[in-house]
Amino acid sequence: MIAYLDTHAAVRLAHGRGRIGRDAEKLIQRAELLISPMVLVELEYLYEIGRLTLPAKDILRKLEHELGIRLCDLPFADVTRAALDEKWTRDAFDRIIVAQARLNGLAPLVSSDEEIAEHYPRAVW
After folding, report:
1. Contacts from 14-17 at CB under 8 Å and sequence distance 24+?
2. Do β-strands 109-110 and 2-5 pair in parallel, antiparallel, or remain unpaired?
3. pLDDT at 37
4. Which residues of the chain have pLDDT under 50?
5. How far is residue 100's CA from residue 98's CA, in Å, rounded to a whole number?
6. CATH number for the 2-124 domain, one of 3.30.420.10, 3.90.1150.10, 3.40.50.1010, 3.30.70.360?
7. Where are the chain's structural domains?
8. What angle is formed at CA 72 by the lines to CA 41 and CA 91, rounded to 5 degrees?
9. Which of 13, 33, 84, 111 is in Cβ range 3.0-4.6 Å of 69 for a Cys bridge?
10. DSSP readout, the chain?
11. Which residues of 60-89 are buried (b: 16+ CB within 10 A; e: fewer)?
C-alpha cells in the first residue's frame, strides 16, 4: 500500500516537531510513503520565506534516508490535468498534492489540514 504525505506532515516527520495523529502514525508504519514533487516546491518556498531552517533538498534527503520516503514520479502533465478537478481550493500546492494522491488510485494522504480532510475522502490524521 502507498500513502502520501502533505507538506505539513513531511515537515513534522523531518523535524520531529509536534505530534502526528494515531491513525496517521499507523499508516506511516505500514505504507510505502511518497511525497508529491509539489511538496518539495512548497518546502523550498517555506525555506525561502524563513518558515523552515533547512532547504527542501536537505529535508528530502533526510526523509529518504530515515524513512524511505520517495518522490512520486507520476507524469506531471497527468497530475495537473487531475488538479483541474480540485476546485475546492485556490491553494495551488493543495490542489496538486491532493490531485496526485487521487490520481494514484485514491491513495491515502497524511494531512492535518481540515479543508483537505473535508474534500478528500482518504485524508488521514
Report:
1. 14/54, 14/59, 14/62, 14/63, 15/54
2. parallel
3. 98
4. none
5. 5
6. 3.40.50.1010
7. 2-124
8. 40
9. 33
10. -EEEE-HHHHHHHHHT-S---HHHHHHHHHSEEEE-HHHHHHHHHHHHTTS-SS-HHHHHHHHHHHH--EE--S-HHHHHHHHTT-TT---HHHHHHHHHHHHTTS--EE---HHHHHH-TTEE-
11. bebbeeeeebeebebeeeebeebbeebeee
Could you give the angle at which helices 92-103 and 76-83 cross, rounded to 10 degrees?
A: 110
Only one residue has cell 491532493, namely 98
The per-residue pLDDT for range 60-77, each reduced to its tens digit, is 999 999 999 999 999 999
For residue range 16-34, what is the model confidence (pLDDT) as tens digits?
767 899 999 999 999 999 9
